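ASSEMBLY PREDICTION REQUEST
Request ID: AP-0331
Submitted by: J.K., bench scientist
Number of chains: two
Total residues: 513
Priority: normal
Notes: Please return the full assembly, not individual chains.
Input sequences:
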Amino acid sequence: MSDYRVLPGPEHFLPPAAASMGIRLPNPGEAHINGVIAPEEKAYEEAARQLLMARVPTIFPGPLVLWAWNEKAAKKATAIRHLFNTLKECVQTGQKPMLIPMPDYRPKYPKINPEVEINPNHPNLTIWHNKIDCCIFVGVHCHQANLSLKIIRGGTSCYTIAMCAQAGHEDAMLSFRDASVDKIMRLAETVKRLKGTVQPRLSTAKSGASN
Amino acid sequence: MSKERIQISEDLYDIMPSDYQDLVKNATYGKEDRGWKDIGTSKELIEQHSLCAGCPESMAFRYILASLPNPEDTVMVGSTGCTSLVFPMVAVHNIHSLFGNQNAIASGLKRALSVRFPDRVKDVVVLAGDGATVDIGLDMTLQAWFRQEKFTTICFDNELYANTGGQESGLMQKGFVAKMAPVGKLFDKVRLPEIARESGCHYVVNCTVSKPSLVEKVIRNAVHIAREIGPTYLQLYTPCILEIGKNSMEGLQEMRDSEKPAERFAYKEYVSEPAKQLLAELAAKDKERKAAAKQLAGQASA
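STATUS: Completed
Returned structure:
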């Protein structure tokens, strides 16, 4: 087993792909936390804890859920909205949950508006601008999620969570696999259950993403 | 992609940037008689572009995107050059190819789409500069025409390599001196429209983009003929105002000057016999459709 741990950055300009450092993907029913395979139950708790602890916990829905390709995508969008609403209900004063879309992957130049969207080619701009210190990717195609997760780990101190519909992401600090409406709803339930039990990082002088 | 799929999930609609909301609500996907006149009243399929102020290429892009008959089921293949700066801003599927192999990419793409979607009309349109079409990619361009591949090739002819500083290209006019070609071009402009005709293209047009209605007509003709019969080629003059020493507002006049009867971009069109027949059939259908719509409108107002 690798000694490497996938931790919040900034790691360095070009962080290694976690897979190249020996981090492996979880099997069905498992997740990984910082690169260590863990039962899914534990991952729900940890993800909820990180979201409740963050000053600006943010959900980044991608094109697979933003666009109503089919009924399943629309249902996932509903679940994501529910997770966001739950998060808003459960945070304390001073915390600012956000829901920022990644509508597509076009490399927009000269730059995107980081207040309204995130782009996989320079996701750090949105993280920096909004001082996001914990984020969850959902509905982003794997290759673009990998790119974003690596850039975020390289240049920011943001904690990254991947709710992946495929086999998960080594480059996230916490990754679920086989994401479904049920799993998103379960994460929302866990957030609700842990409400009030987690101390937010509000008093930390240097909270939020850094570069 | 069917236009019915271009819908934002209801629960996340409010967080989508306004340009995407606008695309879904006000773009002309699926509109049968879409054209350049929609510009200004509906959402264009190009949000913004990073070309120079007054660049005729940006005008060409806007007219072409407004005129594509089937944008939701069209894939555009681009190549390296100023056009590749625009494609990221375009709401039509597109692929960036290596410099010069755009017609080879489009050949494979068109064939794959025909196999994957046998019951759906899928158009492929190549859009590349003169360097990619005539110099570096001439082999791929010609071979696609020889093989009678069913897609449209559009060449934005600015008569030099513009975004690398003004080197000589095959489509540069004889004697022209550019920043990176100080001796002046020693041989004539390559006569690609004639070569296209001889290589098997069924519809060939050489013109400027000064008249949007003309651009709309030739784009629609080229796409419809390519869809049903075989390869089509459009050579559109989109002068690089920077490299020929003009100001931002002088691009349109430059095109008008270059399309006068004796000039090199005087309108020239070649239509093969099968293509003529197809265009006649399409015109008849269009006439019938308009008459039916008029009758319907008359009944509604009565």
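REVIEWER COMMENTS: Chain B has a mean pLDDT of 94.
SIGN-OFF: pending second reviewer
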